[in-house]
Hints:
With 428 residues, the protein is an alpha+beta fold. Helices cover 56% and strands 17% of the residues.
Amino acid sequence: MRQLLKYIDVSIVLLVMAFSLAVGAMILHVSSMQSNLLRASAINTAKLYSKTLTEVRTLYTSDVVQTASAYGMEVTHDYLQRKNALPLPATFSMRLGELMAKHAGGAHSQLYSAYPFPWRKAEGGLNDDFKKKAWDELSRDQSKPYKQFLETDRGLTLRYAIADVMRPACVNCHNTHPQSPYRNWKEGDLRGVLEISLQIESMNQQVGDQIANIRFVYSLVGLAIVVGFVLAIHRVKLAKNSLVKSSAALKVANQKLKDLSEQDALTQIANRRCYDARLSSEVSSAKRSGAPLSILLFDIDYFKLYNDGYGHERGDEALRQVASIANGCMLRETDFLARYGGEEFVALLPSTDEEGAISIAENLRAKIEAAAIPHEFARQCKFITVSVGIVTQSGVDIEAGDLFKYADSALYKAKANGRNRCEVGNQK
């Protein structure tokens, strides 16, 4: 998780630097444009416009749209009518074109295709001879721009068109969009035409002024990108914070699930599954260190008679009381108590010799008896008592199966010798 968050932060910094460098490079490139011939200057300007729009659109698609989409943000043509949405790359490109038309006198951009989306049929189709010719020429050779100088009501105008090629990242969207007019797109297909129109008269007044205007336009473009990108970064950070919170909540939930899987629901002490794992770990540790390992196996005397006489609810309460008393006898952090099953409990006592195990067992037995939990159906003492089997082993010969077997045998012996007592099992 830390690596992911670090990657997000680094990615944001790199993206900001990339956009800054791209915008700076575009402005420098425009500033260096000089031409002695008006038409050559117009062609170069149109070429620069188209290149810039293409680069901005490419950067916007790869670095903004893909990042935003990864965090669940919506990208759509009607983003202004939706909350927390970003424009489609084509929509973003057209909006930039509108900015250019406002601030760069005589400059205008269009994006059209033989397959416009329904909401762009009016302005996005091949609705004049130049557009039809441009589509035909670029369909034959995408690498060469198609251009014409035409006399219009605004004077001599350059119409400069380049191919808008289907990129890998866009194929799936165009083929699966429910309103797509064409669904057999492949990478490298001509999906549209980007046209830049320039009024030569406005350029003829003063080429230097025009270059200054272009620089201003690109400054606005850069500002628009920065503003848009800041918004995207803000939303990414919000998503990142949400991810951190979700991760923390998931960690807590996983810990709770782990605790529940290892805890006996009735007595709130460890269950048999947890005991089996702990026994294996303690046996391995004892073998390595040579320290003794003791087990206490005990159960409630005449518990079936208790359940039959008082009912299962009282029986459950008795189990909880016995578990609580026994757990209080586990004085060290390493001492471990679990419910083995039914009325049977088991305690693991690492680094405890036989004498210490007997002392703990007698203390446990005496405290349960002293609690005076009524048991009028018992055949001896009229309170709940327990019988305890004790076994201690040490060294490399310790075996988990033997420990429990000998402890069970000792418990049986305690039962046979009158109950409410502790017995020590055989040792290797």
